[in-house]
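Entry:
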Amino acid sequence: MSRRAPRTPLPARPLPMETVGGTHRPITEIGTPVLHHHSADVTEFGTERLARLLADMFFTMHAANGVGLAANQIGLDLRLFVYDCPGDDGTRHIGHVLNPEVRLTGTEEITQPEGCLSVPGAVRHVTRAANATVRGQDWQGRPITVHGTGLFARCLQHETDHTNGTLYVDRLTPEDRAEALRQMDANRATVLAQRATRARLLARQAGADQ
């Protein structure tokens, strides 16, 4: 899930330790087959390969100014996502979930602007549950439960949707979906150029910090 376009090339929030050792990977875009089907469960845990993948996902998410990123958004058919998302109370939520299953709690819904790193440059209003709980596993295979409200709840729903092959534009009316694709066509080149610049600057910053 994306944030609004940054005013500066580098994010105001410091890079979390989860990005250490990570590198930038290209983000897949709407129309790529891996984004449009239910991803495969993660079955191998605690491996060096998985740890590197998570670091790459965190780094790529920050380079794209996102608050969440699923594995199929970098072309991998795996049910997992990472997040670095603010909560309603200002708390910064950072983590990952493998094999997520979402449960919506309560009846309250919120309609707010929403964007996606795989639909670059487009933002449309989407109605989602105000509260959400995701259950899954961490990278070592241990059970975890993550609860969110407001924007964080939206992020958890958006990213779990990705692992099920659903993009936020799939929840729009045909007219809104067409408008999102029009926005993407108009803004995509600018957004990708901004991401490339941020990726270079973040890589330089990460190298200086080591």
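Strands lie at 68-70, 80-86, 92-104, 109-115, 123-129, 131-137, 143-149.
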